[in-house]
Amino acid sequence: MWDLRQKPIRPCYTASSSRGHVMVCFSPDDHYLLVSAVNNEVRQLLAVDGGLHLKFEIASTGSSQNYTRLYYMNGRDYIISGSCDEHVVCICCAQTGRRLRDISLEWLRFYVCAIFEG
Is the predicted pLDDT of residue 31 greater than 90, yes or no? Predict the structure, then answer.
């Protein structure tokens, strides 16, 4: 995180993950950063100092190609997370980290295959 008002420009803080970040997004109120990395590593950090607020317990698949993406839903009440090697998306509570629901997208894969295979 950088404060571009400060000269010279230096990071205010840095955050790392075990296999590299895939994406970062701010909460709608700018209090938190939602950070995803490879293989379902998902964390919510405090935007002010980068401190860990929550670590979401989403099971690892062991794949180094399982890129995880996530977004806030309903303001900052929930997050939705999905990975490229899995056919489910997870919905978690953004305040507690509790996993609320998994939604299978298996039907979508068959539907798309049927359209393209004609």
Answer: yes
- 21-117 has which fold? Thrombin, subunit H (2.40.10)
**Which tokens in the block code for residue 8?**
């010279």
Nearest-angstrom CA–CA distance, 54 and 100? 15
Q: Domain residue spans in the chain?
A: 21-117
pLDDT of 4 reads: 85
Phi, psi of 11 (to 5 degrees): -65, 140
pTM for the structure as a whole: 0.79
List strand residue ranges (DSSP E) for 1-118, in order: 21-26, 32-37, 42-46, 52-56, 68-73, 78-83, 88-93, 99-104
Span 84-112, average pLDDT: 82
Inter-residue contact 69 to 36 (CB < 8 Å): yes
